């Protein structure tokens, strides 16, 4: 059975390699996976570059895979700043965990190397998908050891580094609740109603909805002008959007345009 070591990356890449130094004498890992956001504009480009170099040089026997977490439509995710970015990060982590859970691999997830909000959502994802043999870890260490560039535990400090397993209670007590066949259903349930409704729209309707979200006070005439379509086409597309909105949310309201704008504002 394969055991994978996954870690969330923030601006403290040193936490990842220090954790590996402490955990490798206890566990045998077959793969390292690094979960990160878009590096160039999120402030982690240097951390990712340095981590890649250290992993390649000092852990040459372990294959390393990098997973960039994005929004569902593929747009780059920089940080958790609102509900949509939080949901995207949570679902992105769930998707990575699903890959290894579906292969019946054992997962060790380190949540010490990312921002606090990301660590929280990664832990929540683990609590949903982990099996009885999986582990989520954080690392406790003296502040002096987490200084930039300190990628390994100095001699004499080994005992001061404490890997702490996080209690993932749902998977411990109910390991069969989230069998592999149910993971896709779980991922579907984790998405917001707004996201699921949005995906019922055609590509042209999504473009119109995106435009309306950016220009909530635009008239149909103005929307048609921007999209280079006739006003009649815009009216027909809006009518279809309203119908899908009513079917999905099972409500009928007199002011359809305002209802749509309310949904777009969440």
From TrEMBL:
Where in this chain does the record put each CRISPR system ring nuclease SSO2081-like domain?
13-148
Q: Which GO MF terms are attached to this record? A: DNA binding
Tell me the GO BP annotations in alphabetical order: regulation of DNA-templated transcription
Reading the lineage from the top rank, the first entry is Bacteria
Which InterPro entries does this chain map to?
A: Sig_transdc_resp-reg_C-effctor, SSO2081-like_dom, WH-like_DNA-bd_sf
Q: What is this protein called?
A: CRISPR system ring nuclease SSO2081-like domain-containing protein
Supply the source organism for this entry: Phototrophicus methaneseepsis
């Amino acid at each position: 059975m394969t055991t994978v070591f996954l870690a969330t990356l923030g601006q403290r890449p040193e936490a990842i390699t220090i954790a590996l130094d402490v955990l490798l004498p206890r566990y045998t890992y077959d793969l390292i996976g690094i979960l990160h956001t878009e590096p160039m504009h999120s402030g982690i480009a240097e951390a990712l570059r340095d981590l890649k170099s250290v992993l390649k040089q000092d852990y040459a026997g372990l294959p390393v895979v990098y997973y960039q977490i994005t929004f569902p439509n593929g747009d780059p995710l920089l940080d958790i700043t609102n509900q949509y970015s939080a949901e995207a990060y949570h679902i992105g982590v769930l998707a990575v965990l699903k890959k290894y859970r579906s292969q019946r691999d054992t997962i060790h997830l380190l949540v010490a190397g990312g921002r606090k909000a990301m660590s929280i959502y990664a832990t929540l994802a683990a609590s949903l998908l982990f099996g009885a043999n999986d582990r989520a870890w954080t690392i406790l260490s003296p502040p002096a050891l987490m200084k930039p560039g300190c990628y390994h535990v100095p001699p004499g400090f080994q005992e001061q580094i404490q890997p702490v397993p996080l209690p993932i209670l749902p998977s411990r007590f109910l390991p069969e609740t989230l069998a592999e066949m149910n993971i896709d259903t779980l991922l579907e349930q984790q998405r917001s109603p707004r996201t699921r409704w949005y995906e019922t729209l055609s590509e042209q309707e999504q473009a119109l909805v995106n435009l309306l979200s950016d220009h909530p006070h635009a008239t149909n005439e103005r929307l048609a002008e921007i999209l280079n379509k006739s006003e009649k086409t815009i009216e027909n597309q809006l009518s279809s959007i309203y119908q899908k909105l009513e079917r999905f949310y099972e409500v009928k309201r007199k002011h359809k345009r305002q209802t749509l704008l309310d949904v777009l504002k969440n």
